[in-house]
């Protein structure tokens, strides 16, 4: 049952609202002034607050201003019999969900409450989803190698320095890039990922910089590229070593000038983007073979971070195993499975050529095929790596 707090110095208004809202199946608490209302907000959680503006002592606007700090996600509907347009605008600017004049139109009030409840539900769901996403991209480990990576990522995050992340496939380069973004001043901006290896060379420029209508046969409308989409945030160029030389030249210009031009257009578009790149290739060798531009390498590699392979951090396997067991069992809606110490020891003997990606797949396989506890025999039977 949704819970509503009514703050109003008129007893008749309080009691009338209580009767109506309880008839509508809401749970209602009443406060006769602003101070009492704030005490109740500190003591309990409410889905919505209805607050009068003109009250003795602490008025409604002051209550609203304090609620922004105390309960920022709780919608507040201001009600007043002495209001005007300026009062309504001031209330909305200071964070109120809506403003309703007395005498109250009950139909409008009930619709406003339902809409505010919907907004509150969406805010809660968004927070839960963000926590799930954050958990999904969490870097798990306590080894010295991981501690050094996390320390470097956290040091560079608050700056706008470009970062080049190197490491084998499946080692967690994207997780490092996401951590840098989430710890940065751009965290509220977009995190846009481009897998340079997955996009055909003839389409990579359109993908990165966008195109104008008619720029090529299938360009039936104007399209923004990833640089524009990432404006104010972070652009993650994954597998940068697979980018064509022509696209590399344009990326270099974008980094130098902080502006891009769409394919088929000549207008310069300013972009505010932090670029984090990653590769599993040896870029020095790629430069020697004329497959990668040396000037672009120096632009990208202000900070170099090398992500260790799983074989270089075997001491993290117990933590990783438990982390993935929790995550996968939660996704499947099944009780968490146990894993024996001997099973962990057996996992630590495997040569993990596919790194964390391979390890997660093996844990998922074990969860599906094993009983309540994953044993050493289960690992020997089901976790055999690719020969």
TrEMBL record:
CDD domains: AAA
Modified-residue entries (4-aspartylphosphate), positions: 52
Domain Sigma-54 factor interaction intervals: 139-368
Keyword Nucleotide-binding: yes
GO annotation, biological process: phosphorelay signal transduction system; regulation of DNA-templated transcription
InterPro entries: AAA+_ATPase, AAA_lid_NorR, CheY-like_superfamily, P-loop_NTPase, Sig_transdc_resp-reg_receiver, Sigma_54_int, Sigma_54_int_dom_ATP-bd_2
Designated name of the protein: Sigma-54-dependent Fis family transcriptional regulator
Organism of origin: Maribellus luteus
């Amino acid at each position: 049952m949704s819970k509503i707090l009514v703050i109003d110095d008129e007893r008749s208004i309080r009691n009338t609202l209580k009767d109506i809202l309880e008839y509508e199946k809401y749970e209602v608490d009443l406060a006769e002034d602003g101070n009492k209302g704030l005490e109740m907000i500190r003591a309990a959680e409410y889905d919505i607050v209805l607050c009068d503006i003109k009250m003795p002592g602490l008025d409604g606007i002051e209550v609203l201003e304090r609620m922004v700090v105390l309960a920022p996600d709780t919608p507040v509907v201001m009600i007043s019999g002495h209001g005007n347009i300026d009062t309504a605008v001031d209330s909305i600017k200071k964070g109120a969900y809506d403003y309703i004049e007395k005498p109250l139109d009950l139909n409008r009030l009930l619709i406003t409450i339902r809409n505010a409840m919907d907004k509150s539900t969406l805010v809660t769901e968004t927070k839960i989803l963000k926590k799930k996403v954050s958990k999904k991209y969490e870097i798990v480990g306590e080894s010295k190698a991981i501690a050094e990576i996390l320390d470097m990522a956290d040091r560079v995050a608050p700056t706008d320095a470009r970062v080049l992340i190197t490491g084998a496939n499946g080692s967690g380069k994207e997780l490092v890039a996401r951590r840098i973004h989430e710890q940065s001043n751009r965290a509220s901006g977009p995190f846009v990922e481009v897998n340079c290896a997955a996009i055909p060379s003839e389409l990579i420029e359109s993908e990165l910089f966008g195109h104008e209508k008619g720029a090529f046969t299938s360009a039936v409308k104007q399209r923004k590229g990833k640089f524009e989409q990432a404006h104010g945030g972070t652009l993650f160029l994954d597998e940068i070593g697979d980018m064509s030389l022509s696209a590399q030249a344009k990326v270099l210009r974008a980094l130098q000038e902080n502006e891009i031009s769409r394919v088929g257009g000549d207008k310069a578009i300013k972009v505010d983007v932090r670029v984090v790149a990653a590769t599993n290739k040896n870029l020095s060798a790629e430069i020697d073979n004329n497959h990668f531009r040396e000037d672009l390498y120096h632009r990208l590699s202000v900070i170099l971070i090398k992500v260790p392979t799983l074989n270089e951090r075997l001491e993290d396997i117990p933590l990783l195993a438990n982390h993935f067991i929790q995550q996968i069992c939660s996704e499947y809606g099944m009780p968490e499975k146990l894993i024996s110490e001997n099973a962990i020891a057996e996992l630590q003997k495997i040569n993990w050529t596919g790194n964390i990606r391979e390890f997660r797949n093996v844990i998922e396989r074990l969860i599906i095929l094993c009983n309540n506890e994953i044993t050493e025999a289960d690992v020997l039977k089901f976790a055999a790596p690719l020969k």
